[in-house]
Design brief:
Distance between the termini: 34 Å
CATH class: Alpha Beta
Strand order of the largest sheet: 1-2-3-5-4-6-7-8-9
Structural class: alpha/beta
Largest sheet: 9 strands, mixed
CATH architecture: 3-Layer(aba) Sandwich
Strand content: 15-25%
Length: about 280
């Protein structure tokens, strides 16, 4: 989430719909410190089986607890048959920071987390998915396009797809929206920002090698560049013949929409991960 509107319990673990979302931590070399994450295991989790895994990312101003504190995620996750990992990505935009080399948050998600998660849980490494909201939606799409062999499915709810192009917003706009760190994270060089731009990244991957891409955005999203960016990107993906689906739904840039739309996203992800 980009707006800082988070009110959530500080009591961990939290119980939602009868299932406990557990919290753990590990040392992450990519950021040189310990990182915390929440996770949900499938009902009747069995270490003799292997399960798909979903990395579910939070938004700007959020943390690893948001999804289980602010939505009914656990009620969907109980019978999904998927391990759900909710990392803590700070306000990193899920990229390796240009201005702060010690903050390699893309490496955290695509290297450190899989190493830890796949060593601890019974993961089917051929069935990985990634999704998120707002900043996390951007991060999920961006990282899946940069590493199409790593993820079969990438989902975005209200994704900030106009970032990193949004770096060029006037300073008062960026300050008002809490986006002051964009140039620190993405850097000043256009070539570097292009390497994290979904509008450019998909063109570097053959259409039949792209992950399945799933987009949802509210028709009343308060960030005026987000809806046009969704329309433009999905139009381009359609022409490119990329596997994707796009939904414009009633709603704004808020937890009411994300809580409602996470269920359909998970259902579609489950179908995609079933495929050979």
């Amino acid at each position: 989430m980009i707006r800082t509107l988070l009110l959530f319990s500080l009591v961990l673990p939290c119980r939602v719909s009868g299932q406990t979302a557990k919290v753990d931590s590990f040392y992450a070399p990519s950021i040189g410190s310990t990182t915390r994450y929440s996770y949900l295991l499938p009902e009747h989790y069995d270490t003799l089986r292997s399960y798909p895994v979903l990395y579910l990312l939070h938004g700007y101003g959020g943390d690893h607890r948001n999804w289980t504190d602010l939505t009914d995620l656990a009620s969907y996750g109980e019978r999904l048959g998927v391990i759900i990992i909710m990392p803590d990505g700070a306000n990193s935009w899920y990229v390796n920071s240009a201005g702060e080399p010690g903050k390699r948050y893309e490496d955290l998600i695509v290297c450190d987390y899989p190493t830890h998660v796949e060593g601890r849980f019974a993961v089917d490494t051929t069935r990985r998915a990634i999704a998120g909201l707002s900043m996390g939606g951007y991060g999920a799409i961006m990282m899946s396009l940069r590493r199409p062999k790593q993820f079969r499915f990438a989902g975005s709810l209200s994704g900030a797809l106009s970032i990193p192009g949004g770096i060029e917003f006037p300073e008062p706009y960026r300050a008002e929206r809490g986006l002051k760190n964009l140039k620190v994270v993405f850097g000043e060089e256009k070539s570097r920002r292009d390497r994290h731009d979904p509008f450019i990244l998909y063109k570097g991957v053959p259409a039949d090698s792209l992950p399945y891409l799933y987009f949802v955005i509210g028709t009343n999203d308060g960030f005026t560049t987000f809806l046009p960016a969704h329309r433009a990107l999905t139009d381009s993906l359609r022409v490119y013949r990329a596997k994707h689906e796009y939904h414009e739904v009633p709603g704004a840039h808020n937890w009411k929409l994300w809580g409602r739309e996470i269920g359909p996203l998970l259902a579609r992800m489950k179908e995609v991960l079933k495929g050979d």
